[in-house]
Amino acid sequence: MSVPILRTRAALAERLDAWEAAGERVGVVPTMGALHEGHLSLVRAAQAGSDRVVTTLFVNPRQFNSRADYDAYPRTEMSDAEKLAPLGVDALYVPEPEEVYPEGFATTVSVTGLTDVLCGAHRPGHFDGVATVVTKLFRQTRARRAWFGEKDFQQLQVVRRLSADLDLGVEVVGCPTVREADGLAMSSRNVRLHPAARAAAPALYAALEDAARALRGGAAAAETCAAAAERIRAAGYAEVEYLELRAVSDLRALARAEAPARLFAAAWIGGVRLIDNVGV
């Protein structure tokens, strides 16, 4: 079994027309490729919640802060298609940049507030790129529902906000983070970790889990987060970009876990930026 690979809006529209004529609901799983079990879990959830599933594979140039990072991002289309084939995905949409951003494209979708903190504060313009491409992909796939992982929890909340604000009519479904056996959150960037960095990388999740446990017990966020960051650096991380307790609803900073909250972190190890978050 192989996955139909569609590369143009016209080819995608032809499939969508047929499905819609049959009264079938379309779900979408947007990805940038380099698929792992986390992505595949989203596809399975989408199949359980829609009649047809389109997985998109598009390395979006507008959400990278450096050309070098964009160029280094893994491109593994054929192996991605092989991973999707046993699941029976209805289509893999792999557009070229000009299919998403045709000549003369001059529009940016920007979500304020949610994007001013955490990754947004350290990666200027990143979430404008995310919001713009997600809006385009929602429109091109005509999806009724879309599935995103909670590992990128800030992104999940941004996409929920833009879908609601722009009346896109897409229900955005969050799915739990999938982890390796040692706790490291699955990420397409993990393949870039050299062996020593990969061995040390699970310290990020371990520190977050212990800090979250302390916060649930009433500990203050400032001291708890500072201690967790120091532990992460001691484990071999070169830099902890941020480690913060924030409310789930609007990502406002919290001094204590007095509302539904998550603990968020971004850190660098072996030249690779990893992010993670856990519920508190």
Describe the structure in brief.
It contains eleven helices and nine strands. With 280 residues, the chain is an alpha/beta fold.
Outline the structure in words:
It is an enzyme of class 6 (ligase). This is Pantothenate synthetase. Keywords: ATP-binding, Cytoplasm, Ligase, Nucleotide-binding, Pantothenate biosynthesis. Catalyzes the condensation of pantoate with beta-alanine in an ATP-dependent reaction via a pantoyl-adenylate intermediate. Its EC number is 6.3.2.1. The protein has helices at 9-21, 37-49, 67-72, 77-84, 97-100, 119-122, 126-141, 153-165, 195-200, 203-216, 221-234; strands spanning 5-6, 26-31, 52-57, 91-93, 145-149, 171-175, 239-247, 261-269, 272-279. The chain is built from eleven helices and nine strands. It is of the alpha/beta class and 280 residues long. Helix content is 40%, strand content 19%. α7 (126-141) packs across α8 (153-165) and α10 (203-216) runs antiparallel to α11 (221-234). Strands 1-4-3-2-5-6 form a six-stranded parallel sheet, sandwiched between helices. A three-stranded antiparallel sheet has the order 7-8-9, covered by helices on one side. β8 (261-269) and β9 (272-279) form a beta hairpin. The radius of gyration is 19 Å and the shape is globular. The mean pLDDT is 97. The protein folds into two domains: 5-175, HUPs (Rossmann fold), CATH 3.40.50.620; 188-274, Pantoate--beta-alanine Ligase, Chain: A,domain 2 (2-Layer Sandwich). The protein starts with a strand and ends with a strand.
